[in-house]
Amino acid sequence: MSATAPGSWGRYPPSKPRQVLHCRDPRTLILPAEPLSCLPFGNGRSYGDVCLNDGGALLCTRKLDRFIAFDPVMGSLRAEAGVLLSEILALVVPQGWFLPVTPGTRFVTLGGAVANDVHGKNHHVAGSFGGHVRAFELLRSDGEHRLCTPTHHADWFRATVGGLGLTGLIAWVEIQLQRIANPWIVAENRRFANLDEFLALNDDYEARYPYIVSWIDCAAQGRALGRGIYMAGMHAPPGLMKSPPAEPRALTVPFAPPVSLINNLSVRGFNRLYYRLPRPARGLTPYQPFFHPLDKLLEWNRLYGRRGFFQYQCVIPPADAREALREILARVAASGQGSMLAVLKRFGDKTSGGLLSFPRPGVTLALDFPNRGRETLDLLERLDEVTRQADGAVYPAKDARMSGDSFRQYYPRWEAFSRHIDPRFSSSFWRRVMADRTSRETTCAIS
Ligand SMILES: Cc1cc2nc3c(=O)[nH]c(=O)nc-3n(C[C@H](O)[C@H](O)[C@H](O)COP(=O)(O)OP(=O)(O)OC[C@H]3O[C@@H](n4cnc5c(N)ncnc54)[C@H](O)[C@@H]3O)c2cc1C
Predict the structure, then answer these.
(1) Which fold would CATH assign to domain 184-408?
(2) CA of 406 relative to ligand 1 center, distance in Å
(3) Where are the alpha helices (DSSP H) in 336-391?
(4) Which of 44, 165, 204, 277, CA to CA, is 20 to 30 A from 414?
(5) Residue nearest to atom 10 of ligand 1 (CA)
(6) Cα(417) to centroid of ligand 1, in Å?
(7) pTM over 0.70
(8) What residue's CA is closest to ligand 1, atom 32?
């Protein structure tokens, strides 16, 4: 991949777009000549290949960065699709508003947040991002500008929320913000000794807190399997430390070392230490480190070295969550792979709006793995066996390797979705998960 070609967060797979276009004005956008396929590219915070279009064209949206309208009384905001969530927070937090849903990094564009229908720590109360989208404009390659809302062109709305950039280019998005009395967060930390204890804590904490996430020690085994730290939070009431928290200073990892600095030894040592680290049971914290702790270290993905890394994020339905997660964690711990960034969270019952949305009721687990080639791919396929068996799903935004059969099992509405794909749009992800079908159809047609 050329040094300047936009890539994905996991730095895998390598990808070389034939053309990179920077969209500045969606009204005058001219697509590259056929047969080159196109794909919108936000800020490349997807880990795998949903934002890649190897051999095709990327339509980079970061220059679509204008705010269009903000109503500080009602909290509705309309902005171009390349505006970052960090830029929205900087505008609205001082005026008493907050994003309805935020993922674990704020360096995500509005268009990317819609196209992956992202979720946050408040899924059990707020559902996913798409549930707070009031409208967007979709540009199709035939030149049509389609205004979509949950009730107008509703089928296009459902296909584009979580639609992985394949239904066209989102030009702007209008969302409903949530009111906050205070930008500070009242946070609570609690250690849990294993997976059973984590599952037992959820009912109590979910009733009291809108934001919940847990870190787990994915190297722990035996009776400590699934041990970790439960972190819950809520916006502080008015009066408590009202001044806006200062923007935290960030450090940058300057380059990717030839080999991953995340290895078996560093993972075990870090996890053991992190689990035992003394931390306040309850306290006030600025919203930035609570929601986006990793944003303090810019380009942290470089720590995994030049070969990059995989993230595996699955969701397991409630009935099988205990057994399936235990099996997944046991397989990870026995493999000696895995990392420091392991996250566990229960999704609530709120239905996601998109035909391909990932969030659904159950427990979601996200794990990072340095890319050790075949060894890692085999492990991830063994994790997929468990997820498939439990009727769960893997998140496309984090994926670079699931098979077409797995994808179609996880997303049974893929056929209804595929009728909405813009004929000029495609991605490395879509070609990968559809490759076996394309070759099967070709074989049938020939025979
Ligand atoms: C540290 C970290 C933490 C994260 N935590 C979470 C989390 O908690 N929850 C979660 O859900 N995700 C999480 N993510 C994943 C991230 O939120 C999503 O991958 C998000 O979609 C990335 O947005 P982006 O702007 O970088 O888009 P990209 O990654 O560049 O693109 C994502 C998809 O959106 C499409 N797209 C982008 N812009 C447009 C547009 N204008 N029109 C149409 N399609 C478009 C692309 O084609 C692609 O398919 C995390 C990622 C990181 C790096």
Answers:
(1) Vanillyl-alcohol Oxidase; Chain A, domain 3 (3.40.462)
(2) 21
(3) 374-389
(4) 44
(5) 118
(6) 19
(7) yes
(8) 112
